[in-house]
């Protein structure tokens, strides 16, 4: 699949906004710690940031946490969030160290093709690279084995077109307004599940 930049200027994928708030001290300090541990190597840092968000921020559906975090700094502070929130956190960490990061999405269903939902992940562009690499920091569990990769994709959920699933090709510089609105307007995770979009 060809990924399509929503914004032609790569600088748009380094910007801060209300959700990807990489100017926040917690985001900047976390990114600096991971950068130092990676020896200042951009690829090693990107992989470390990915593993940090995937493994130390539980997906709230797995942990049972009913709080709704959506701002990157809140996700890191509470160590809680669904896929969209975790993607905001990973994008913020990457952008804090000058690595362009985009928000991207999939439409997924259950095994019968019912109960569609929009799943959030990111794409990153390493220095000197001429392409984007999608990464899914959702968090692993039995049946889900996502990994950082700049080769063959290792996403949490490869799509099944026969069930109506799809990869959306657009790389967004800011979170798509539909899932962001659901996150911002939900008092708890049960309300969030009712409000999340089923398609973009």
Q: What's a concise summary of this model?
A:
InterPro entries: Papain-like_cys_pep_sf, Transglutaminase-like. By secondary structure, this protein is an alpha+beta fold.
Structural commentary:
- With 200 residues, this protein is of the alpha+beta class.
- The protein has a single domain (4-195), classed as C8orf32 fold, CATH 3.10.620.
- The protein is 34% helix and 12% strand.
- It is built from 7 helices and 6 strands.
- The protein has helices spanning 25-37, 42-56, 60-63, 72-78, 83-96, 177-185, 189-195, and strands spanning 4-5, 101-108, 117-124, 133-135, 166-167, 170-171.
- The strands form 2 sheets. It has a 4-stranded antiparallel beta sheet, with helices on one face. It has a two-stranded parallel ribbon with strand order 1-6.
- The longest helix has 15 residues, at 42-56.
- 41% of the residues are buried.
- This is Transglutaminase.
Keywords:
200 residues, alpha+beta, C8orf32 fold, 4-stranded antiparallel beta sheet, two-stranded parallel sheet, 7 helices, 6 strands, 34% helix, globular
- Strands ordered across the widest β-sheet: 4-3-2-5
What is the number of domains? Answer: 1
| Helix percent band | 25-40%
Q: Structural class, please?
A: alpha+beta
Compute the separation of the termini in Å.
17 Å
Count of helical regions: 7
- Helix-strand pattern, N to C? EHHHHHEEEEEHH
Number of strands: 6
What's the CATH class, please?
A: Alpha Beta
Approximate strand percentage: 5-15%
Stretches where pLDDT is under 50 for at least 5 consecutive residues are none
- Average pLDDT confidence is 97
* Major β-sheet annotation: 4 strands, antiparallel
CATH 2nd-level architecture? Roll
CATH topology, which one?
C8orf32 fold
Rounded Rg: 16 Å
Morphology: globular
Pfam families: Transglut_core
InterPro entries: Papain-like_cys_pep_sf (IPR038765), Transglutaminase-like (IPR002931)
Organism: Streptomyces subrutilus
Protein name: Transglutaminase
């Amino acid at each position: 699949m060809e990924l399509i930049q929503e914004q032609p200027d790569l600088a748009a994928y380094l910007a801060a906004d209300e959700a990807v708030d990489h100017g926040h001290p917690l985001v900047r300090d976390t990114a600096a710690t991971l950068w130092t541990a990676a020896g200042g190597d951009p690829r090693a840092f990107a992989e470390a940031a990915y593993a940090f968000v995937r493994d130390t921020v539980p997906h709230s559906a797995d942990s049972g946490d009913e709080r709704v975090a959506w701002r990157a700094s809140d996700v890191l502070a509470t160590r809680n969030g669904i896929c969209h929130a975790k993607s905001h956190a990973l994008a913020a960490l990457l952008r804090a160290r000058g690595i362009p990061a985009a928000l991207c999405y999939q439409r997924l269903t259950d095994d019968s093709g019912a109960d569609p939902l929009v799943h959030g992940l990111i794409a990153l562009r390493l220095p000197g690279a001429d392409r984007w690499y999608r990464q899914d920091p959702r968090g692993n569990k039995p049946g889900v084995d996502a990994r950082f990769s700049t080769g063959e994709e290792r996403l949490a959920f490869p799509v099944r077109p026969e069930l109506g699933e799809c990869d959306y090709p657009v790389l967004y510089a800011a979170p798509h307004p539909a899932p962001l609105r659901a996150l911002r307007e939900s008092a708890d995770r049960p309300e969030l599940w009712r409000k999340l979009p089923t398609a973009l």
